C-alpha cells in the first residue's frame, strides 16, 4: 500500500497545483523515489484512458471509499503495469474488478480500432515543458552563489556569468549555466538537467525551484527579524526561501492541513538549515488573526490551492480548462483566504500567488477582495522591469505579474502584492528596492549584479 498511497498523494498534489512531478516525488519522503516516479509518470501518461475505464466500469460508483487518484494508480498497474503486486486490501479490491476492467479495455480498443494499449494514448505533450530551463536557487542559509558556481565549475560546467536577456537563457545547452537576469541567487541550467542526486541538492545547499515560484518570497521581501505567515506552505520551497531572506532571524508560521505533507516539509526545512519556523496542521481559514501569537505578523505569503493550469509539466488532458463549477469553487476559497489574510491587525505587506492561468483565480480574486479592503490596502506596482503584467480587467491590474513559458521561460504563474495604506514616508521605508525601484543600486535590483556575500564558514567541497 505504501507505494500506491504515495503515488496517489503525488497525483492529488498535482491536481492542487502544489508542484511538478519531480519535485513532489522527491519531496514525498518515499524511500524508493525512482519506483515512485515511474509509477506516477506512467499513470499520468495513461490518465485519459484510465478515466474512460473507470467511468465505463463504474468502479468509483461501486467502491465509494476508493479515492479517484488511488483508483487510477491501481487500475494502471493492474492493466498496464506489473499487475498489482502489493497493496493489501486495495490489491484485493482491484482484482475483484479485474474482469470488468479488462472487458472495458477490450471494448475501448475495438471502439478506437487499435490492438495495442499504447495506441490508445493521446499525442505527446506540448513542447513547452522541454523549453523551460532548470532553475537552481542557491540556499544562502548554507552557502553563497560564488561557492556554488565554483563547485559546478569543478564538475565540468562552464559558467557564462550573468544573463542579459531571456534569449540567453533560451540558448543554454550542454554543460553551460548562467546567473539569472532577475533574481540574484538563481542559477540557470539547460532544460532537463537533473540534480536530484547531486550532493548540493541532497545536502540542502541548493533548492530546485522554478523561477516563477521564487517570485512570491522575493517580492514579499520581509526584513530580518520579521514575523511572517506562509498560509498554504507545503511542500516548503517558498518557506525555505522566506527563511533565507530573513537570514533565520524572526519567525515563520507555516500552515497546512495534511499531516504527511507537514512531516515531509519539516524534513525538507531541516535539510535546508531553516530554524526560525513553526509548523501547524491547521486550515489557515481557521487561524484567529487576534491570537496574541500572531500580533507581530507583518508579512503574509498566500499561495492557495488553485487549478494548477500554469504547470507546464502537466499532460495535455490536464491542461484542459477546469469546469466553470470548479473554477467558481476555487475562486470562492481563494477570495476567503485572501480576505482572511488581510484581517491580521499588524499586517503590512502580502503576496498573493497562484500557478493558474485563469483570470477567475487571479485578477478577479484580487479585484473582489480590494472592493472590500481597498480603504485599508492598495495594490503595489511591483517589479516594473518584469515583462509580463496582469490582465487589464480593472484599474491597476497591470501592477500584478504574470509568468509563462513563452514570455518568461517559466511555469505559468500570477503574483499580486498588496500593502497597507500609509503616508508616503512610511510606505517608502518598507518597500523593497529590488521589487519597486528600477533605478535602485541595491544588489537585489532586477537587472543589476548581486552584492557580494561574505563567504560562509560551511563551504561547498
TrEMBL record:
<keyword id="KW-0698">rRNA processing</keyword>
<dbReference type="InterPro" id="IPR029063">
    <property type="entry name" value="SAM-dependent_MTases_sf"/>
</dbReference>
<dbReference type="InterPro" id="IPR048889">
    <property type="entry name" value="NSUN5_RCM1_N"/>
</dbReference>
<dbReference type="InterPro" id="IPR049560">
    <property type="entry name" value="MeTrfase_RsmB-F_NOP2_cat"/>
</dbReference>
<feature type="binding site">
    <location>
        <position position="303"/>
    </location>
    <ligand>
        <name>S-adenosyl-L-methionine</name>
    </ligand>
</feature>
<protein>
    <recommendedName>
        <fullName>28S rRNA (cytosine-C(5))-methyltransferase</fullName>
    </recommendedName>
</protein>
<dbReference type="Pfam" id="PF21153">
    <property type="entry name" value="NSUN5_N"/>
</dbReference>
<feature type="active site" description="Nucleophile">
    <location>
        <position position="355"/>
    </location>
</feature>
<dbReference type="GO" id="GO:0070475">
    <property type="term" value="P:rRNA base methylation"/>
</dbReference>
<keyword id="KW-0539">Nucleus</keyword>
<feature type="domain" description="SAM-dependent MTase RsmB/NOP-type">
    <location>
        <begin position="124"/>
        <end position="421"/>
    </location>
</feature>
<feature type="compositionally biased region" description="Polar residues">
    <location>
        <begin position="427"/>
        <end position="443"/>
    </location>
</feature>
<feature type="coiled-coil region">
    <location>
        <begin position="91"/>
        <end position="118"/>
    </location>
</feature>
<feature type="binding site">
    <location>
        <position position="283"/>
    </location>
    <ligand>
        <name>S-adenosyl-L-methionine</name>
    </ligand>
</feature>
<keyword id="KW-0489">Methyltransferase</keyword>
<feature type="compositionally biased region" description="Basic residues">
    <location>
        <begin position="450"/>
        <end position="461"/>
    </location>
</feature>
<dbReference type="Pfam" id="PF01189">
    <property type="entry name" value="Methyltr_RsmB-F"/>
</dbReference>
<feature type="region of interest" description="Disordered">
    <location>
        <begin position="425"/>
        <end position="461"/>
    </location>
</feature>
<dbReference type="GO" id="GO:0009383">
    <property type="term" value="F:rRNA (cytosine-C5-)-methyltransferase activity"/>
</dbReference>
<comment type="similarity">
    <text>Belongs to the class I-like SAM-binding methyltransferase superfamily. RsmB/NOP family.</text>
</comment>
<keyword id="KW-0175">Coiled coil</keyword>
<dbReference type="InterPro" id="IPR049561">
    <property type="entry name" value="NSUN5_7_fdxn-like"/>
</dbReference>
<keyword id="KW-0949">S-adenosyl-L-methionine</keyword>
<dbReference type="InterPro" id="IPR023267">
    <property type="entry name" value="RCMT"/>
</dbReference>
<feature type="binding site">
    <location>
        <position position="256"/>
    </location>
    <ligand>
        <name>S-adenosyl-L-methionine</name>
    </ligand>
</feature>
<dbReference type="Pfam" id="PF21148">
    <property type="entry name" value="NSUN5_fdxn-like"/>
</dbReference>
<dbReference type="GO" id="GO:0003723">
    <property type="term" value="F:RNA binding"/>
</dbReference>
<keyword id="KW-0808">Transferase</keyword>
<dbReference type="GO" id="GO:0005730">
    <property type="term" value="C:nucleolus"/>
</dbReference>
<dbReference type="InterPro" id="IPR001678">
    <property type="entry name" value="MeTrfase_RsmB-F_NOP2_dom"/>
</dbReference>
<feature type="binding site">
    <location>
        <begin position="232"/>
        <end position="238"/>
    </location>
    <ligand>
        <name>S-adenosyl-L-methionine</name>
    </ligand>
</feature>
<keyword id="KW-0007">Acetylation</keyword>
<keyword id="KW-0597">Phosphoprotein</keyword>
<keyword id="KW-0694">RNA-binding</keyword>
